[in-house]
Amino acid sequence: MSPGRFRRSSVAFVALLAFVSSAALAQTPRRGGVLRVGNLGEPPALDAHWTTASITETLTNHLYEGLYSLDASNRPIPMLAESHTVSRDGLTYTFKLRQSVKFHNGKEMTSEDVVASLARWSKQSIYGKALFAQVADWRAVDRYTVEMRLKEKSAIVLISLAVPNNFGAIYPKEIAEKFPPEVKVTEYVGTGPFKLAEWKPDQYIRMVRFDEYKSRAEKPNGYGGGKTAWVDEIRWIPVPEVATRVAQVETGELEFADDLNLDAYDRLQTNPNVRTIVSKPYYWLVAVFNKKDGLMTNAKLRQAWQAAIDIEPIMKNVAGGRAEFYRMDSSLAPVEIAAWHTKLAGLPWNEHNRDKARRLLKEAGYRGEPIRFMTTQEYKWMYDFALLTKQQLEDVGFTIDLQVVDWATLVKRRNNPKEYDVFTTGMGAFYDPTHHIYLTASWPGWTTDEDILRLQAELARETDPRKRMALWEAQTRQFYEKVPVIRYGDLFGLRAMRTVVKGFNERTERIRFYNVWLDK
Amino acid sequence: MSEAAARARWLRRLRRNRNVVTGALIVVLVALAALFAEAISTHDPRRLNPANRLRPPTLEHYLGTDEFGRDVWSLVVHGSQVSLLVGATTMVLTSLGGIAIGLCAGYSRRLDLPLMRVMDGLMAFPAILLAIALMAARGPGVGNVIFALSVVYTPRTAMLIRSTVLGIRELDYVLAARALGRRDLAIALRHILPNCVGPLLVQGSFIFAYAILAEAILGFLGVGVPPYVPSWGNVIASGKNVIREAFWVSLFPGLALTLSGLGLNLLGDGLRDTLDPRLRVP
Amino acid sequence: MTAYLVRRVAALVPVLVVVVTVAFLLIHLIPGDPVSVMLGPDATPAQIHAARQALGLDRPLWEQLLKFYTRILRGDLGQSYFLDRPVTQALLERAEPTLVLTFSALLVAVVIGVPSGIVAAAQPGSLWDRALMLAALLGVCVPGFWLSLNFIYLFAVRLGWLPAAGYASILVDPLAALRYMVLPAVSLGFSQSALIARISRSCMLEVLAQDYIRTARAKGLSPAAVTWMHAFRNALVPVVTVIGITMAILIGGAVVTEIVFNIPGLGRLIISAVLRRDYPVVQGVILVTATAYVLINLVVDMLYVLIDPRIGYE
Q: What's the pTM?
């Protein structure tokens, strides 16, 4: 080989080596750094048992863990539990706990902590209450074993212990007993990979790595599996103005911004330092009827609403005018929850049949009384679909009194049947048919239809998956006939992440920052 | 000089003052837009047309459309109604309130001190913050916006009236009228109020301008009139999230606000120049 | 002069009494029961009872008012329901950003406004004068929050020169603090600078027309010396008044600026408190800002006396 050629090829070789090693380095997680995340606002609480609010869900899942978690297919997998056995008659579940798992205060987690925590959860959380309605006895057997005895066979034990929202977080016994279920905890001690360092309301919430965190040995899988806190600190910064959130991730003041408006998509795409993430699903939009009191107790009126609305243009507008940000689907479980997704034909969903609507209005005996429709601008998409719905309904003969309040007021008022007729909200993913809160009598809106409640009870008892699916399809048909709430379409969400953030799992419904590192 | 001649001279000076003329012209223009909003709008400002969202200005939509496809030109034109309603009502209420309180304070030495302390106290509250706090108590809505702004601005008018009263009270012809047995109220109406008209108009123009701006700020913050009611503050607020994609949504109501403020400020400046107290005829 | 000062301070007391009373009345304007609104329908009867007692709502009105006064004098502004801490603490945590913002805006307003006014007054009717006063007029009329939006779009998003929003403490990182403060301070101070410019100009004009100025000119002093040495000092008096008024407007205007730029100050606090129905905090913010205004006016009046000793003898 001539000297020139040798030199050129060695240069090429060195360049190649450098490129490959830097690429490899980029993929190797490294410790350190502060990850700044822009949020919608302040969480109402950092007590997982206390509320179903999404912000609380996201934050508490970094500090606390439950007995089970969800894998990438949305199935329960063990987290703080090591394993479980079920008795032959299906009525006794015995859970073995992992050992040497430490709380943030240095104490070891044992069965007494688990018993106390889930007892508290069972009194306050929607999912806890539903599960423990079937529980006869719940106790510690020995230091690392707990036992749950059921009144009847149940299909929902593991899934209830695995859902991330309003979940059965394990607190130290002292804390679980110190704070009654209806009072938010104000001491934050968990077993999660991050611990709370500082909470300055309206300024930031700082979580730092918990050095004694005992990770599971498996690879990360969905929300569960191994978790490593690579970054030193996660700083959650409340930025209520969405335009500001977008601007701050564009300029690099935030590494991550969630709940962005879809109009910002094009602009963010052009920024080489930002990666856009479209989260599917984000929420599916619903209008919930007050079925305890007032005008909407009349089923024909609800059916008229369902017949009148033309859902696609509403979804398109809410999705920033883009078809790739929404999905039309009548199934009560979205596509991503494959186990419960239904493809039924002939449902009266999105009929946009004005004549039928007018006929139903007449049959309902509606005389134009104003219907109080409550919404908020804090979740912009709620206000958007409410305003568009109002126009469509008024074109058919409804009189809608749109009341725009702040989210905190809406959440308070929706508990009072005298205050409203309909309100807007969005549903996140439900991992089991029995978790669909709008099909229960206790959640605002108060669904008391006998057929619906009967089917829900059967779903809780039946353990054969195929029979459950048949029940679920029957329930779906009941849903569209009795119309407890109006289901619109599925809305996707927009998130933005600086390219220095690596390892982020884009498939989970809500954001998690363990196993994430900064390549800086 | 007779009163009629004095008034004529006064009006001539007003007409010659460029600020007054320009300002008045602008204000009249905005008022006409508000009065004939239906006629000069091209679309129903509340009509949503989602297929047409965020369109730039065209011949069909002079100022473009917003995120719901509503016509911005029609929104701005109708928005003037809310602004003018709030501005005018606030101006009238503060004038009436100010006259009542100012007369009492100027005339009655007993009431003067306590009234003035209360006015001082009320003036200490920053207008927007007090309006927000009152909204917290009473809820959003046009009526509450007007109430909040009136509470905050009345003290200024009251002090103005009071100082006018104090200035005139000791003048010879007033003392003469008193000696003749004329009642205080009659004196007030015949001699004092006419002299207040000038300063009231000046003060009123500025209060009108502040009120329009305050209403827009409250709307922008989401504590003004309901968001689907066309108002300049609401439209600016709805445009702020799409300022990159559709700058026209926030731009035009902002210009309308600026223009109205300009007109009122010019008017106020001009009136103040013309009504120099040294030339006022007793 | 001391007599004047004493009288001035004494006059403060009734004004502050009025301020406190108005703040007290705010919570009573609320239709319905403020406590259940605050705590929400999930509150237990025990919690509601405790809250009523803490707020003193179970006693007659005059007694509540008296208790309110004594609490205020002790510095106790009550407890924030959402933030789970004393209102005083919440206010102290948020005071720094608002103070920094207000003073920065004031600085911008004075630095732009006063020289502009003086320059305009020095050559009345000239191109400079007309241009500056036109700019000032526009400055008064352009809505501050609209200006903020445009500034963010231009300087942060388009040009990338400055951060779009946020706040850094001067005590922690002065350089970052400066960068974050530029856009908010300028958009807030700009409209005030217009007001100051106009008033400075008219004051200077009045002073420059005075006899003693003509005398100074006749004596042969250069125009610059005349302007600066004699006129300026005398024009200072009304300018100082305007600065006092400006502070009040800034305190109110800071609310919107804080929202747009995501600055964690008192303005954002009151908005969140209003949204959360955290009435003790709303009361606290109103009280503190009004008191600040009253005290600032006192300081301004004292400055008056220092600058122009004649005033003290009224």
A: 0.85
